Amino acid sequence: QVRLVDTGGGLVQPGGSLRLSCEVSGFPMSTSLMRWYRQAPGKGRELVAAITTSGGSTNYADSVKGRFTISRDNAKNTVYLQMNSLKPEDTAVYYCNAEPNWNPRQYWGQGTQVTVSS
């Protein structure tokens, strides 16, 4: 059974940091492009960051470039999102997404709430 579990969200002050984790089970994460999305209240889901299967290439939304870093540990079947210099506009539910190279279906985590507020 494929499962993605998102953790690490919470309440943080502006300028603070959080690290999100997404643990994948049910298939080897090394076969998947991995992404983080977010959805703020009243808004659509937005792609935040993506990382290729080996971790050799990453890309980011313009709004988070220079502040967020996506990484992966295929041995632990876990992908991370390090978020620094957080702003109130980063407040959203963050979702992990897996796109395996052996299946056209994509898989989603349950989401983790990030709230940036003083």
Would you write up a description of this structure?
- The chain has 118 residues and is mainly beta.
- Helix content is 0%, strand content 53%.
- The chain is built from no helices and 11 strands.
- A hairpin with a 6-residue loop joins strand 5 (45-51) and strand 6 (58-60).
- The chain is globular.
- The N and C termini lie far apart (40 Å).
What's the helix-strand series? EEEEEEEEEEE
Strand content: over 45%
- How does the helix and strand content classify structurally? mainly beta
Q: What is the residue-averaged pLDDT? A: 97
N- to C-terminal separation? 40 Å
Short note summarizing the structure:
The protein is mostly beta strands. The protein is 0% helix and 53% strand.
Annotation keywords:
single chain, 118 residues, mainly beta, seven-stranded mixed beta sheet, four-stranded antiparallel beta sheet, 0% helix
Summarize the topology.
Blueprint lengths: L2 E5 L2 E3 L5 E8 L6 E8 L5 E7 L6 E3 L7 E6 L4 E6 L8 E9 L6 E2 L3 E5 L2
Parallel strand pairs: 2-11
Antiparallel strand pairs: 1-3, 3-8, 4-5, 4-9, 5-6, 7-8, 9-10, 9-11
